[in-house]
Amino acid sequence: MSALRLRRDPVRLLFSRGLWAGVWYLLAYQVVGWVLFAIALTAALTGAVLSITLAGLPVLVAAAAAIRWCADVERARLRPLLGGVRAGYRAADGHGLRAQLRARWRDPATWRDVAYLIGLFVPLAALDLIVLTVWLVLLAGITLPAWYWAPWQTVHGVRYHGYQIGYFPNGPHGHPGYGLYADTLPKALLAAAVFLVLFLLFSYVLAATARAHAAIARALLRAPEDPLREAKEVLRRPGVLATFIPNER
Question: What residue spans define the domains of the chain?
Fold first, then answer.
């Protein structure tokens, strides 16, 4: 069962396990994803460069093993969210180095690992970072009444304290001025209320982003579904006609 379920009530969503599991999944990807990307890219490039020589054959086998290990790390990260993800790699048809090389690099599962670990890393990492940044900024805005007085600016020799939400080149009372200049507690409370509403609504965006990221990872890192699986299961079970056929003695 997926832990990344969206709840209709934004308050219940805020205190749900799914939202914070999604937050942790996206945050961890900003660190783990970079490490796995670096390992997979280095292994793939090293194997590709050395593949022109016989000495590069064991490097290619080791590169495929490193990429599989990186994919296994991502499968382990998916387990708390979507359950176990079966890899489905092909077994080698021999024991020699060439047999291992053919089995690993002719396996579509290896190329799906490469597509996720290397090909999709930049767009996924960028999307996750943008969504997390906006979500955290809105979260920080809820605490504005506790620190609105700390920021300051000097305009024409006059020092003004307060937090600008908009554009105020001439201070809180000057013109032009667009937005809200939270220089008093009532204004800070008003801004915090707006941030709270936006934070609750944007939590749906964050949860949906985590679900989409996890779905892409599962689609590429798991074994493909057998289109005839249900038919094969039916054929393996005794059918309705079996109850009308007498047993041979």
Answer: 10-127+211-223, 136-202
Contact, 202 vs 135, CB < 8 A? yes
DSSP letter, residue 152: E
The predicted-structure confidence for 41-88, as pLDDT tens digits, reads as follows: 999 999 888 877 776 788 888 999 999 999 999 999 998 888 778 888
Q: Burial level of 224, CB count in 10 A (0-12/13-18/19+)?
A: exposed
Which tens digits make up the pLDDT trace of 180-214?
878 888 888 999 999 999 999 999 999 999 999 99
The whole model's pTM is what?
0.79
Its sign, for the CA torsion 96, 102, 105, 108, is negative
Q: Counting beta carbons within 10 angstroms of the beta carbon of residue 33, is it exposed (0 to 12), middle (13 to 18) or buried (19 or more)?
A: buried
| Contact assessment for residue 209 and residue 81, using Cβ atoms and an 8 Å cutoff | no
Please report which helix (H) or strand (E) contains residue 76, including its range. Answer: helix 56-82
β-strands 163-167, 158-161 pairing = unpaired
